[in-house]
Design goal:
about 500 residues; single chain; 12 helices; Pdz3 Domain
Length: about 500
């Protein structure tokens, strides 16, 4: 029987089908990258002895345990079938006599206590406790426990996370200077070069495996003939053994420099089967710098829709100068591409001098840049090589950096509705805006006493609901940071508001 192919995120008990970046801030847009140590490759030839590289990295790779409180299944019986009695009378209903059966206090306490959700790895990148890991390692966690190689344990705070690149930045407060791994340049990696994977597979701490770079700018989607459920689709492919628990761990070169964060494996079983994938360090460094300084990733937009060029497509379009690159299928109005003179039918082959042979390489080069950066685009038009310089923009069509807001910036609190308020307004749920002061809600025109019934089409009935929606909006760097709010005033008048959650710079 033929097994289905899968890409497994290298995290305990997690199977999923697994975009990219460098820097280049323009004048007046200085980026605080001092907290990330960077080195220059010496060009030394990799040797067979990896002891020094392993010694320099193993103490800077940590174990990360995530914890969450199990959610009660309110409308299912023990065997998993839907129970109509529980639907109407609640999960403690005893169908025989109509009496509610309270669970033992000890069992209730066990259900309320956070339980381990997953296990992964992380890399210390600054002596004061900043740690980079995968977003899927910390996703959904209520508590994060970081264990160092000397078995010291700390609670970690999430500084920021980016599901699109699957990168998260954590911080621990240690009373000592922590060991770190120096950032290397993943662009300098060559196919066939030796690399080491350092992490905690299956909970086995301080594990080091060796392999070579099998490919660069590898698209998992093209390899599995299925769409990746991460925005990033340009990886370093290696044959270093990576297994569940390695996620967020270090991929280092023979000099002990960080060249990638191990993220996914290509497997039919969920365990290592020959190939693993890492996020390039050039992307990691840019993302963590953005998360630390701005709270959200700064993504540059060229403003084109494209598709990969191959020999058949080139022949169909009458393109003879190249069989590689990305074909411009659409140019967005008022975009950087339109201002730079790009047109439908152009074939982009380089960005800032780096080859663009396919979609993965195009995404990787674009994700190294920020809004306001200038980029040189090399392309073919009418089989003649040309180039243009464009000023990249953000999703809103501007060139400014944006900072994410926090809940305090909304300038209000939220109070659950009383039964009388629900009856008067003829609603089933909602929250009342109270304690309104200067902030984003007041700026949007919202007034004291306004009752919110839903945000971004999600029903709200408590302040916790608002916080959860807010956190989800801020976490997704690919979407606009806007709350679309529906609600009513005490008079019964229904009103809609759009609250911008970003701070322009």
């Amino acid at each position: 029987m033929k097994s289905s192919r899968k890409v497994a995120l290298a995290m305990a008990s997690a199977l999923i089908i697994g975009t990219s970046m460098s820097y280049g801030a323009t004048d007046g847009q200085r980026v605080d990258e001092n907290f990330v140590r960077t080195s220059v490759r010496t060009g030394a030839t990799p040797g067979p002895d990896f002891t020094k590289a392993a010694e320099n990295s193993v103490n800077a790779v940590v174990s990360i345990k995530s914890f969450a409180t199990p959610k009660q299944q309110q409308f299912q019986s023990n065997d998993g079938f839907f129970d109509p009695f529980e639907f109407f009378f609640g999960p403690n209903y005893n169908g025989g006599n109509g009496q509610k059966q309270q669970k033992p206090k000890q069992e209730q306490q066990q259900q309320q206590k956070p339980q381990q959700l997953g296990l992964g790895s992380g890399v210390i990148i600054s002596p004061d406790g900043y740690i980079v890991t995968n977003n899927h390692v910390i996703d959904g966690a209520e508590k994060l426990e970081v264990t160092l190689n000397d078995n010291e344990t700390y609670n970690a705070k999430i500084i920021g996370s980016d599901p699109n690149s699957d990168i998260a930045l954590l911080k621990i407060e240690a009373k000592k200077t922590l060991p770190t791994i120096t950032f290397g340049n993943s662009d300098d990696l060559k196919v066939g070069e030796w690399v080491l994977a350092v992490g905690n597979p299956f909970g086995l701490t301080s594990t080091v495996t060796a392999g070579i770079v099998s490919a660069k700018a590898r698209s998992i989607s093209s390899a599995t003939h299925s769409r990746s459920n991460m925005g990033l689709d340009s990886f370093i492919q290696t044959d270093a053994a990576v297994n569940p628990g390695n996620s967020g761990g270090a991929l280092i070169n023979s000099e002990g420099e960080l060249v990638g964060i191990n993220t996914a494996i290509y497997s039919q079983t969920g365990n290592y089967a020959g190939y693993s994938f890492a996020i390039p360090s050039s992307i990691v460094k840019k993302v963590v710098t953005d998360l630390k300084q701005y709270g959200t990733v700064q993504r540059a937009v060229l403003g084109v829709k494209f598709q990969e060029l191959d020999a058949d497509f080139a022949k169909d379009k009458g393109i003879t100068a190249t069989n590689e690159g990305v074909y411009v299928a659409e140019v967005v109005d008022r975009s950087a591409a339109m201002e730079g003179g790009l047109k439908v039918g152009d074939v982009i082959v380089k960005v800032n001098g780096a080859d663009v042979k396919n979609s993965a390489q195009m995404m990787e080069q674009m994700n190294k840049l920020r809004p306001g950066d200038k980029a040189t685009i090399t392309y073919y038009r009418d089989n003649k090589l040309r180039s243009t310089v464009v000023t990249l923009k953000n999703n809103e069509g501007g060139t400014k950096m944006t900072k994410s807001a926090d809940m305090m910036s909304l300038g209000c609190a939220f109070k659950a509705l009383t039964d009388k308020q629900k009856q008067d307004l003829q609603v089933n749920s909602g929250v009342e805006v109270v304690g309104l002061k200067e902030g984003k809600f007041k700026k949007a025109g919202i007034k004291e006493g306004f009752v919110i019934t839903d945000i971004n089409n999600a029903v709200v009935s408590s302040q916790e609901d608002v916080e959860n929606i807010y956190n989800q909006i801020m976490k997704d760097s690919s979407s606009d940071k806007v709350m679309f709010i529906t609600g009513l005033y005490p008079t019964g008048k229904k009103v809609y508001y759009a609250v911008d959650l970003t701070d322009g710079e």
